[in-house]
Amino acid sequence: MNSAYNDKKYICIVGNILNNKKFRKIEEFDHHGISRLNHSVRVSYYSYKLSRLLGLDYRKTARAGLLHDFFLLNNETGKEKLKSVFTHSKEAVKNADSCFILSDLECDIIKTHMFPLASPQPPKYAEGWIVSLVDKAISLGEFTASYSNNFSLKFKNATIITALFLCQVIFK
User: Distance between CA 50 and CA 135 in Å, rounded?
Assistant: First the structure.
């Protein structure tokens, strides 16, 4: 994810979050086979790029995308993992709000990023749909990375194409 860290405009937007000691603790937790921090940076950066491309609020999208999994549970057991699917977005909003000033847009993005899997409420804003879709696409890619490279590459490409298609349908 060097491209995110080399993008000066992106780092200007999220640098204060990336340098926050409490937020940096998510680096210690595994998430889909990588650190939760790396996952969050990926979601944030691709959501930021897509939001910029579509003329949306890319600053708030980048911040909320980075904060969407800001919960400090390790989820080592299957029961903990299952429970966190339904509770982590509320925990992420609470943690993010205690460390940073969040807008209504950012709160909504974080709260609804698990729609429809674990959030009955859909995102109110286009930026929320972007983070939700990008999170799912990236999560699927990360999850399949442990499979053979050939299968993983095909699956990642199919996931990205599907996410882009959905974005076109939603934002027509």
Answer: 12
